[in-house]
C-alpha cells in the first residue's frame, strides 16, 4: 500500500509539473471561467433600484362586474361572437342553458359547428373544444341523466382554455408581488355564476326573478421588495448553464488533450510495464484536475452566493458545483478513451461538450419538462451540462 501511495504521489507531482510548464494555458483555464462569470455579476448589479411597496388592497367586483367582463375588449376574446358548448343535449339541460344564455348574452350550442351533428359523448365534445379554442368560448358538461326535471343537486364541469396550466402547483416564472392574473377576467367565474343562477331560477322561478348579488374581493397582499427588473432571475436561470458551459469548455478540451497525448506517446503503457496500476493512473489525473478546477468552482460559488442566491445556503451551492466538476472530469475521461490523436480528440471533445447542453434547451419548455418521466429526467442528467441547466430551472422558482 505504501508503494501504491508513493506511485500516486509521483504521478500527481508529474501532472502538476506539466501544468506548471504551460503558464499561458493555465491562465486561460482559470481566467476564462472568471471572465464569463463576470457577466452574471453585471446582471444583478444593474438591478440596484429596489423599493418597498405598501400593502396592496384590491377593488371590489360584484355580479355587475362579472356580467361585464364576460365580454372582454380585444379582437381575440370577443366572447359574444363565440358559442358556449354543452353536453348532454337533453331537454332539461337545454332549458337550463337557455337561462344561461339569457344571463350572459352568449349563444349556446349542443352540436359541432364543423359537422352540424350532436356530440356523441362528453369526450368527443372535449376533443373538439380543445382543438378549436378560438371557435368556442368553452364547454359545460353536466352530470345529469335522462331525468325530466332538474335534480336538486346538480354536478357540472366548466371546460375553458387549455393554457391555464392548472396541473402546475407553482408558477413557472414567478415574479415578486401579488398574482394579478385573475380568474374572473377570463370567463370562469362569470360562467359559474350564470349556471348557478340558472339552476336557482329553475328551482324557484317566482322568487328568483332578480339575480342574487355577489360581492368578492381579492385578499390583500403584504408589502414586498420589488426589483427594478423582474426578469433578472429568469435571465440568470437561462444564461447560467450556457455561461458555465462556455467557461469550462477550454478546461474540458485541455483535459481530453492531455489524456489523449499521454496515450499517443505511449507513456501510460510504459508506466504500466513498470508496475503502475491502472486505477492509480486515473486517480492521479482525477485528483489533479479536481484540485485545479476547484479554484474555478470556488469563484463560481462566491459569485452566485453573493450576487444571485443571496438567501441560499452557500454549502449547498458548493456541494452542487463540486458534484458538477466531478461529473465534468469523468465525462472528459470517458470522451478521451475514444481518440488516439490529441488535436482530433480536443476538437471533437469541444463539440460533444457543447452538445451536452442541447437537451436542456429542448426540454426547457415547462410543458415538455413536466411530460418527462422520472427515469427520463435522470437519463438527461447523465449529461453534466443538461443536469446543470435542469438544476438551475428547478432552483429558480424557489
TrEMBL record:
It is found in: Membrane. Residues 29-364 form the ABC-2 type transporter transmembrane domain. GO terms for molecular function: ABC-type transporter activity; lipid transporter activity. Its main location: membrane. GO terms for cellular component: membrane. Keywords: Membrane, Transmembrane, Transmembrane helix. The keyword Transmembrane applies. Coiled coil: none annotated. The chain crosses the membrane at residues 24-46, 231-251, 290-309, 316-339, 345-364. It holds the Pfam family ABC2_membrane_3. It is a multi-pass membrane protein. InterPro entries: ABC2_TM, ABCA. PANTHER family: ABC TRANSPORTER DOMAIN-CONTAINING PROTEIN, ATP-BINDING CASSETTE TRANSPORTER SUBFAMILY A ABCA. This is ABC-2 type transporter transmembrane domain-containing protein. It comes from Desmophyllum pertusum.
